[in-house]
Amino acid sequence: MNCRIRRRRSEGFTLIELLVVMGLISVLISLLLPAVGNARRAANATACASNLRQMSLAWMMYVSENKGRLPENIYFTSPLVSADTVWRGYWPGILDTYRVRGQTILCPSADQPIPFLQAIKGSGTAAYAWTGRWESFSPIHFSATAYRDGSYGYNRNLTVGGVTPAKSSRLNSIKPLGEVPVFFDCIAPDAQPSFADNAAKVAPPPNLQGTNLPLSAPQHWRFLIARHGRAINVAFADGSTRRVPLEETYQMTWNLPWTKFRLELPIR
Questions:
Q1: Which tens digit of pLDDT belongs to each residue from 128-147?
Q2: Do 189 and 149 form a contact (C-beta atoms < 8 A)?
Q3: Torsion over CA: 219, 224, 227, 232 (sign)
Q4: What is the pTM of this model?
Q5: Where are the domains of the chain?
Q6: How wide is the angle at C-alpha 42 spanned by C-alphas 40 and 47, nearest 5°?
Q7: What is 179-230 written as a DSSP string?
Q8: Which residues neighbour 79 within 8 Å (Cβ) at sequence distance 6 or greater?
Q9: CA-wise closest residue to 180 among 247, 103, 234
Q10: In 3D, which of 150, 140, 147, 121 has the Cα closest to residue 52?
């Protein structure tokens, strides 16, 4: 009987051995977590680029079917513009007709609508999607139950009613296509950075998270967000998509004429 008890005890772990094993497991987990996090971020960035590619393709199909004419700059209702026209006429409605909607306009790194209200109603952050929940009639809000959430913005310079490249309403005015951004990671549905001829005229945002921006915030702050590291994904007018470091966003051709330069931005 005593032999059996001693044998059972010898077959089990001592407290010290158990603590050593638990310590080793903790060390292994701490080593693996950064790798898992990096893999997840890389996967999100890849899925984001795929979303932007689909959006760009739908936009190009629309422009082609309209003989090169760019979309209208339709964002607010008026006596001459109905809520239905606004809902269907701007880029979210246009893409919706090509079945590009829902999760496709949500970056995996910011796929949850912002749960709190910022000074700019419905605006998102680097980590949260924008939402039409708190807007009035617009391309992202039709009613209390029909509104859109998204993580991307549109270059409003590429609209008939906006300041288009070469002040034209047609795609053939945009050159070179591979340098003109169409869709990009953004905390709002669109952005129209002003013409700038030197870096001194471009005010840097207070942070790269898109949080607590005032109503008077410059338009370029909307896409200066650290969503994919210190960079955003961008879809260009030629259908290509690539990662653009934040400091290099003003080296893209947002409008014509446009002087390119590298931005100086805050650390965080």
A1: 999 999 998 899 999 999 99
A2: no
A3: positive
A4: 0.84
A5: 2-251
A6: 95
A7: GSEEEEE-SSSEE-PPP-SSGGGSPPPS-SS--S--TT--GGGGT---SSSS
A8: none
A9: 234
A10: 150
